[in-house]
Specification:
Layout (H helix, E strand, L loop, with lengths): L17 H5 L16 E7 L5 E7 L1 H5 L3 E5 L24 E2 L5 E7 L2 H9 L2 E6 L6 H6 L8 E5 L2 H6 L3 E9 L11 E7 L3 E6 L4 H12 L6 E5 L14 H14 L3 E4 L2 H7 L6 E9 L5 E13 L5 H10 L9 E10 L13 H19 L3 H7 L19 H11 L2 H14 L3 E14 L8 E8 L5 E5 L8 H13 L6 E3 L2 E2 L14 H28 L7 E4 L2 E4 L5 E3 H10 L5 E7 L4 E3 L4 E3 L3 E14 L5 E10 L7 H20 L30 E6 L24 H14 L7 E2 L4 H9 L3
Parallel strand pairs: 1-12, 8-30, 10-11, 14-15, 18-19, 28-29
Antiparallel strand pairs: 1-5, 2-4, 2-6, 3-5, 7-15, 8-13, 9-10, 9-12, 11-20, 13-14, 16-27, 17-18, 17-24, 21-22, 22-23, 25-26, 27-28
Bound molecules: pteridine-2,4(1H,3H)-dione and dioxothiomolybdenum(VI) ion.
Amino acid sequence: MTVNPPIQKKKGSLNIDAPLHVSGKTTYLDDMPELAGTLYAKVCYSKIAHGHIRSIDTSEASALPGVVRIIGHEDIPGVNQIGGIIADEVLLAEDEVHFIGMPIVIIVAEDEVTAHKARELIRVEIVEKPVVVDPLEAHRCKEYLSKPLHFQMGDVDSAFAGSDYVIEGNTESGGQEHVYLETQGAYAIPRSNDSMIVYSSTQGPTAVQRTVARLLGLSMNQIEVDVNRIGGGFGGKEDQASAWGAVVALAAYLVQRPVKYILERGEDLQMTGKRHPYKSNYKIGLSKDGMIRAFAARFFQNGGAAADLSPAVLQRTLFHATNSYFIPNVDVWAYPCKTNLPPNTAFRGFGGPQGMFVIEAAIHHAARQMNMPVHLIQERNLLYEGAEFSYGQKAEDCEAQSCWYQAKERYDLSARMERIKAYNASNPISKKGLALMPVCFGISFTNTMMNNARALVHVYSDGSVGISTGAVEMGQGVSSKMIQVATSAFGIDTDAIKLETTNTTRVANTSPSAASATADLNGKALQDACRQILERLVDLLRKHWGVENEVEVIFENNGVHTSNYSKNMPWKELINLAFRKRINLSAKGHFATPRIHFDTKTSKGHPFAYHVYGTAILTCTVDCLRGNYEFDAVEIVHDFGASMNKAVDLGQIEGGLAQGIGWMTLEELIYDEQGRLKSGNLANYKIPDIYSVPKEVKVHYLEAEGVDLAILKSKAVGEPPLMYGIGAYFALYNAILAFNKVATLPYSAPMTTEKVLMGLYGKR
Ligand code: LUZ
Ligand code: MOS
């Protein structure tokens, strides 16, 4: 991969974790030294997707030497409930099982091998019931996890009537396994007075704390959750880490010894939820010149057996149903379908990608029908300043067009298309395809209540600084950004600042690290804490120096000085002075995103602090004998605002892009009709590797000022780039059309090699 422009090697603008990562010194949950007496948990889970439990025989397992205890739902002292949004999910099965992988009992043993052996000895007799794996089947029976959702603007019926073209079709997009490098897990240590510390691999320490407290019948102040860092989350640990925290906490509480459980990869693949597969249909109306007059769609979300985060994911699908386009008449419905799969959950983009795939498919379909270039329809309908989304918010600081036109110019789109045409004309069995993919993604938790954060700052008497926030470092580089916020506030070196673990005792009531908003929310809370300490220091200095309020006091270069340089003092000396003068050198900061609101009854409001924009141009080459393909290049113009850390942000773009391309091309999650996962290991579930990523990735930083609600005007960057990957599907489709003009190819992602081959040789 090449980088354009080159990374600035400025001090403090790299990922502070990089040296640890590349030298293998980074420590994760399983690297923690274990206390003597630690036990190991394992769950015995259902091998049947739907049924009634007739009997559970644990006698043989219990007799195995080394087995300490076997725990069932009747042993739970509090409430057997782990549901996050809706209380519809038990931790341990009672009478019924609802998916393969549903925990039934917990085995606690002296070592992992014994726990594993014991699991094989447990006999569970289940009377099977009908299994539903298809969201459309659930929809036919109105089996929903929560209420269907509806967004609408304008009047689609009259707009369709007045359209020159009205095109209808169906789409399908597959699920996606998170494949965080560190699997789910937790380690609980009981303490005196019925309290407990839980080390958890979670994006949401407070969610773990709340879940454990409810399960044990304790209050939240008795449970401390601590996260040093996690080895990837991608949404999979936003809500679903809580179950494993609950398993070890329950075991530790009952046996009063430390208990640990780190899932094996196979267990993790089996038991945990993934990105929601969707089936959808669309109707799009256009005028002859390619202006989209109306768009209607119905989204059928495969939610799995319990709600988990599905209602929120579903809503974000509707928020992003028109992607980066202004469409005056919109009518979109979304259905959270209940099936017998593990509850599906958050995954980078959170339903947004599933929505965007449908509108891009509709535009592609229309372009084919109208014999018009796809990119022309895309371009004519791009969002503009002040354009209204179907949910009532208007586009502000809109960079949809600037990203698009800069991408076209900078990467010389017309010359590129000519070259592709010439290549395709002279290569009978190898074809190139190209697609543009504009992205517009809303930043904020769509649940307004969640958009808040806190931070704790201590300045120690030697001048060193300790900071704590609610942000969880999961490889995305938020630690680097938090340290940058503190360095820029205090004007001191990175080395003087220590970022503490994310801990519910130091920072309470946190929202999960999710929604791309972690750096914004926690960074702003951290700025607030720093500001309070700085104000106290400035007051002190004004008295000490006898300077007026008009003279500015500036903190930089590890010291403080007046704006006219008449007075100055090194940072350490100032802190020593403040300590002796009994100034409070600690502060708790708070931030709640202003302005945002959303009325769930009317589905109108201003839910997002701002939007992130960008455009990618993707080029691929298809081997028309084998159906194999590779991506030649992906060229992006991305709206970072004023990026505060280009190295970290570039990493998010590259990683998000690769993950998005993986979802759209390689990663095929397959469940059979009995709800059995057929792609249950990493040999038959293919994720992107160094051979499948694009040969070349160019990222251009759009010249933009940034917005005030972004931390240091540096826009959120976690999720938006994943959706560039959607262009991979359409680039491949276009290469196939270059070989076979009449290809019959349903809009069904992922575009695997097999589907490419069928497209190449299929007839209309
Ligand atoms: N999580 C969540 C998210 O709870 N609400 C959201 O809106 C969201 N968006 C993206 C990713 N995670
Ligand atoms: Mo997420 S999908 O931002 O946990």
